[in-house]
Amino acid sequence: MKNIPTSLAVVAAAIAGADGRVLLHRRPEGKAHAGLWEFPGGKVETGESPRCALVREIAEELGLTLFETDLSPTAIAQSEARGADPDIVILLYSARRWQGEPQALEGNEWAWFTADQAHALDKPPLDIELFETWARSQNT
Fold first, then answer.
1. DSSP per-residue codes, 40-89
2. What is the pLDDT of residues 89-116, one digit of tens each?
3. For a disulfide at 124, which of 20, 33, 34, 97, Cβ 3.0-4.6 Å?
């Protein structure tokens, strides 16, 4: 019997600079929620740990090197399954340290935002939930 996942695991990074601004990127055209701003990240591949997947995804998308040991679990958001599509579970990690300068390696627009600026951006529903939890964690 084929093992069909009931959830799609996705990881995302809250990369905040020393000035408190957070790095977000815009969803590309042709994808769900195109044009909306989100935390960068992507799918966890078979055999990958979430932290390993996040290191890979951020390197592929932004050319930044994250360090697995410096990723702190920060938030989780989950959608409901729709028809044949599984539910999506996004695990948000805060990146305390990284190397490099962000680059648009996959053509996605990216920018640094203050918490107030990021709050005002149009975001996918799960990223709204993740952002609210992340923003609260920044005020403690």
1. SEEEPPTT--HHHHHHHHHHHHH-PEE-GGGEEEEEEEEPPPBTTBPEEE
2. 999 999 989 999 999 988 789 999 999 9
3. 33
